[in-house]
Structures are given as C-alpha cells and as structure tokens.
Amino acid sequence: MEITVTSYNQGWPLLFQSEQEQLDQLLKDVHPTIEHIGSTSIPGLLAKPIIDMMIGLKRPEEMELATEALVQAGYIYVESFNAIIPERRFFIALKDGVFREDYPNIITKDPDIHIPSHTHRFAHIHLTLMDSPFWTDHLAFRNYLRTNEEARHDYAALKEELSAKQWKNGNEYAKAKGAFIADIIQKAKSAESMTPHVS
C-alpha cells in the first residue's frame, strides 16, 4: 500500500474540534480528556490527511465503558491491535459518504483484510489511560515538534522518503518511523527534566 502525505491544512484543527465535541458528548459519563495528536496537530508539518485523536481516561474500568460507547456510535474498533499495544484501544472514524456496512463493527481477525483503506478514514481514535506511557509519550512527541523547527524539518523529510515506498500496511509504515519517534520522545523528556518547575 502507498501512504499519502499532504501539506499542512489549516482546517485540520477545526476538524479535530468538531469531532472532539461529539466525543465529549458521547463519553460524558467518563469525563474524557481529548487531545489532538499526530502530524495533523503540528502546524506546518506534512501529514496523512487523517485526524489523530487521543482520548484519556482516569480509571481502568472506564476503558470498557468507553469502548462499548464508541462501537455503539459507529466507530470501527480494531480489537486485533490490542495485542500490539495492550494499553490502547484503536478506533477508526469513516469519512462522510463511505458506506459503513462495508466494514465490521469490530475487527477481530487479520486487519489487512478487513480494515478500511486510508482513503476512507476521517480520524484515528486512540483510547488510553492518562497515566499510561502511551498518553505521555504522544503528548511529549507532539509538544516537542510544535516548538522545534529542526525536528519538524527532519520528520517531514523522513515522511516524504517513506511515503515514496510501498508498505504491507500502516503498522509497517509506523514501525519504520519508530527510531526517529523514540529519539524525539527521549529528547522531549530530557528537555522537560531540565526545565525548572515553579511550586
């Protein structure tokens, strides 16, 4: 498969905000914290035109409640990804006009067969706990790139290089970025540890 990246779109934050409002209402019983993450959350950066959103919950028992609510609302739950990242639940929101009945509500088998193509996806929803490494690492990565022009430039160059290749699936593409992302997260944490905190 090909991974398409496009120039930054000023409308991405507005698309996030619109979806955030719907999710806030849908999950009001668990009082989520919802963050815009990934490349569409970083002004000026090339990105796949899919909005990445992270829903943070405070208590483990809320994960099942939120998962059920998202499935009932029509988000596609890729349950087979739980084995890859156990601390996260992954959902896909489809674009308007995509025939929802073409896809199962819950993908439990080989996602390469059943998962929607990137061109059919509007958003990726990552559900996790706010004290998890998944939550803190994604925020650290986003915040570092928002404030570091050199890192943004290097990441854009990597994404352009990788988008010219063919990939088995999106996870294989993500894995190819893994070393760069891990390095940025480490730099972000080191910078945070050196920042004086006012009590």
UniProtKB/TrEMBL annotation:
InterPro entries: GrpB/CoaE, NT_sf. It holds the Pfam family GrpB. Keywords: Coiled coil. It comes from the Bacteria. Transmembrane segments: none annotated. Residues 141-168 form a coiled coil. This is GrpB family protein. It comes from Priestia koreensis. The lineage of its organism: Bacteria, Bacillati, Bacillota, Bacilli, Bacillales.
